[in-house]
Each structure stands twice: as C-alpha cells, then as structure tokens.
Design a protein that fits this description.
Layout (H helix, E strand, L loop, with lengths): L9 H9 L13 H15 L3 H16 L28 H14 L6 H15 L31 H10 L4 H8 L6 E3 L5 H4 L13 H11 L11 E3 L11 H7 L6 H8 L4 H9 L1 H15 L28
Antiparallel strand pairs: 1-2
Helix pairs in contact: 2-4, 2-5, 3-5, 7-13, 10-12, 12-13
Amino acid sequence: MALRYFLLPFFFLSLATAQLSFNFYRSTCPNAEFIIKTLVFNKFNKDPSITAALLRMHFHDCFVRGCDASILINSTSNNQAEKDAGPNETVRGYEFIDEIKTQLEKKCPNTVSCADIITAATRDAVALSGGPSYPIPTGRRDGLISNANDVNLPGPSLSVSQAFSFFRAKGFTLKEMVTLLGAHTVGVAHCGFFRGRLFNFQGTGKPDPSMDTALVSKLQKLCGSSSLPTVRDPTAFLDQNTSFRVDNEFYNQVLKKRGILQIDQALGNDRSSVGFVRQFSSDGNGFLKTFVDAMVKMGKLEVLVGNAGEIRKKCGVFNSPGFASM
C-alpha cells in the first residue's frame, strides 16, 4: 500500500499543537474527562485487556493521518476506510469508544471530539494498569478523510533500522521509538504475527536462534506449524511475566530472549537500541516518565485544531453535509 505522509511545515505543526490546551473543555463540557475516566474504569474492571486495545488504536490512528480519529470511520460502498486496512484488522475497542461518545453527546452535544476521546481513554487505561496518570492537552478535531490506502505502519517483522524509518518520519528519536514499543508491556499478538520465528525462521527450517528455547517450545505447542488461516488464531502475551501491567518488565523479557515479536527481540539484539533496553530494564520509574513524554508527543501528531475538521456526532461516520459542529 502507498506510503503517504502529510509532513506539514514545522511552524504550522508548532502552531497546531500550541492550540491544544489543558482543560480545553472546562467551559463547554467541564465533566468530559471525568465521564471518560468513569467509563474506562468500569470497562477495565470487566476487561483489563482494554488498555492494550486502546494503546494500539491510539498508535494506529496517530501514525496515519495524525491523531484525528480517522481509524474509527466505517467503510462504505464508495470508500474502504482505515478500519478495514490489513494492519487494522485486529484493532479492537471501537464499540467502547462509541459508548463513551454516546454518553458525552447526552451531556454536551457536538462538543467533545472522538480524537480527544481516544487520547483521554488511553491515558486513563494506562493509569488503571499500573502506569502513571498524566495530564494531556485536548482540543483535537476529527478528520474528514479515512482511506485504507493511507495505512502504512511498521510491521512486527521489521529490523530496528526499518522500524525507525517510520518513527523518524514522524519526528521521533530512536529512544522514543524504543519507549513507545514498550507499550507491548501489555497485550497479546496472534500467532500469525510470529509463527515464522518458531519453525522456519528466514527460510532456515529452524526456530529463530534469538528466542529463548523454552519459550519456543511453549509457543510451538500453542501455535502449531501450519501457516494457513484458521478459524481460531491463538494469541500469546507480549510480556510473559506481568502481562496486564504497564511497567518495565517488557525490557527484562527482551534481555532474556523472550520477546515475542521479531521487532521486540531486535531491540535487544541491535547495538543501536540495546542500551535503551538495558536502561529501561533497570530503571522502571525512568521508563514510565519517558513513556509519558512519548505518549503526549504522539498525541500531538498532525492534529486538527481550530476550524479544521469537525466534531463528529457519531465516531464511526462523518457528519452530514451542513451539520454544524462547534
């Protein structure tokens, strides 16, 4: 699929992000963030895996057209939207975002953007999973375009340098990339994303030698050798120890050769990134601080503000022509 980056001039990006502000809804919808936090709390108590789902959704949204909620748009007969692009087939949590939006529309119609809902809900879920609670600037507007052809994201089998080319294009440093991949401290991956490492790594007929042999045996039993699509594609935790907790254990697992995805293990094998892996593995608080900074930065990517875009009435569809959004 075509790689399309909309790299605006730096002065324009700075102007856009400057228009985001803390407590943006203090006069128009003062309870907006409280409503989001309450719904995330209720959801998390029923399904703690929602944290990983929201982290992935947030990343997949921001890295395509910026943080504009374009990932939420439903496809139509005339347009295949981002949601149905290959890399987004296993993204989930759309119904939950719709639930939050419904409640906010009841309290403050046409006011809170779907883009801000994703960002705030992700922050709240991270805090509930043991991570820090951090302030986020709001005021994002929802995008008016969602096209599957725009979706080109770093895949799970890339090398560090290949993955970094995606992050560098979005203005991130290598350390920030290693930090953001630390979101794999929670969540799972389908066997289809790493089965090649278990049986026939790069055509060798053998498992990936960079993976712990005990883990290889465990995952071989879980996944099976067949690469053909099945009704049920099993999943494995990306962090084999503290699987539902946002902490630095992911990096310890990588140093033990227990990274599940090829890109995860590559972080611990590549000379350019292993220093950051070691740093975060020994300094949990340092990782969390760096993670917060990187998440806030990601949440500002190519945002729409002011009169750009719209405030969608429903997150899955664009407003009808002529619909007045504040």
